[in-house]
Amino acid sequence: MTRRLVLIVLVDALGWEQAGDPAFVPELDAPRAPVRSVLGYSSANLPTIMTGRLPREHGHFSMYRRAGPDGVFAGAKQTLALASRLTNRRWRISGWLAWWLRRRGVTGYFSLYEIPFSVLAEFDLCQRRDIFAPGAFDGMSGIADLVLGTGAGRIWNWSVPEDRAFTELSEEIDRGEGRVLFLYTAALDGLMHAAGPQSGAVREALAGYAERIERLCERARQRYEDVRVFVFGDHGMAPVSGVHDLRSELELAGFGPGGPVLYFIDSTMARFWFRSAADRRRIEEILARHTWGRILGDEELESLGALFPDHCHGELIFLLEEGETLVPSFMSGIPARGMHGYHPDARHSFTVLLTNTANRPYPANLIELHALLRDEIREATA
Ligand SMILES: [Zn+2]
Question: Residue 316 maps to which CATH number?
């Protein structure tokens, strides 16, 4: 019998609100508390879990940042200029672009969403390399380096469909050879965006996860003497209460895409880059009219670990209040029922750790969660 298994299940968007109740997978019985995420989406939170660093340190914040001279879309500029005039072929052009990016060696997770082709080349992908594979972060090691670098474990990332990943994980447990098995799934995140975090469909999905996790634990106990389980999310999910069309407002004020001010409209953030102080003042005036969002000052961004010296993620960041959304954004033209990407102190931003281990201090945030996982993996693979 193998001595110890570290079993990690990272369910994207599994929040404190979804899984904080001790009745959810009760056998993971260590006392639970909210775990603070970082400002940003999964594109910021997952790298923080993997490296134990803040966004400014690991460099990942939004999926799209301002491009430098080596921007990943630079070589597709002409195609994009042409594509921006072929509005009815968006789907096919996006498919070609995704293929082209993979061929250029992009292994990280990305989506082209509904970013206007006319401005796409102004941006760059933040996550060029798969963060669930070794060597993803410049000058720092991540959880994947520890798990896969030692050959002692296996990771299932976003590229494996959820059902298959759970089946393969179960088979791997039965083999009893791995010492660290790590499954990541984004299915709950997608469902909560579409159906809302308090919907019946989500309650059903959560019951399904609880059952799957309990079954995995049971099988693992048959093959391993010591089974150490860690189930957590990267952030939570808030019910959507408001929808705001900032994009049309900007266009009406003369700031259309490709105009004098460059901007990226995420679901809960608008990020701007300016050519003149006068443009900046005008944008600040437009934003100041709204009570459902606010401009984050440099001091606050610094305290959130999201002040980037080169402002590659925005010279000005307008963040929405919890539950408010920007529609249409560059991500979607359709309102969602659930959203995340608010201030980390907002009620629904917190995630949670479910575990059956109690010999380490419970993490207050994702950086402490990383430290806990790192120590567990090192011990299991030593
Ligand atoms: Zn999401």
Answer: 3.30.1360.110
For residue 194, report the distance from its CA to the centre of ligand 1, in Å. Answer: 10
Between the CA of 234 and the centroid of ligand 1 the distance, in Å, is 10
- CATH number, domain at 136? 3.40.720.10
Q: How many CA atoms lie within 13 A of 374 on its CB side?
A: 17
Structural domains of the chain, count? 2
Q: How far is the CA of 236 from the centre of ligand 1 (A)?
A: 9
- Cα(193) to ligand 1 centroid in Å equals 7
Q: Quick one: 272 and 374 in the same domain?
A: no
Q: How many contiguous H segments (helices) and E segments (strands) does the chain have?
A: 14, 16
Domain encompassing residue 273: 241-335
177 and 295 housed in the same domain:
no
Q: How far is the CA of 276 from the centre of ligand 1 (A)?
A: 34
231-243 mean pLDDT: 98
Q: Do 138 and 30 sit in the same domain of this protein?
A: yes
Q: Over the chain, what is the mean pLDDT?
A: 94
Ligand 1 mean position to 197 CA, how many Å? 11
Judge if 43 and 154 occupy the same domain.
yes
Assess if residue 97 is contained within a domain.
Answer: no
Whole-number Å distance, alpha carbon 341 to ligand 1 midpoint, is: 8
Residue 41 alpha carbon to ligand 1 centre in Å: 7
Over the stretch 91-109, which tens digit does the pLDDT of each residue have? 788 888 888 889 888 898 8
Mention every residue, 6+ apart, whose C-beta is less than 8 A from residue 288.
Answer: 295
Q: Is residue 90 part of a domain?
A: no
CA distance 237 to 198: 10
Pick the more confident residue, 120 or 219: 219
Q: Which residues surround ligand 1, an ion (CB under 5 A)?
A: 189
Contacts of 69 (CB under 8 A, 6+ apart): none
Q: How far is the CA of 257 from the centre of ligand 1 (A)?
A: 24
Which residue in 208, 231, 236, 176 sits closest to 36, CA to CA?
236
Length of the chain: 382
Residues 6+ apart with CB under 8 A from 382: none
pLDDT tens readout for residues 277-306: 999 999 999 999 999 999 999 999 999 999
Q: How far is the CA of 237 from the centre of ligand 1 (A)?
A: 8
**What distance in angstroms lies between residue 42's CA and the mean position of ligand 1's atoms?**
7
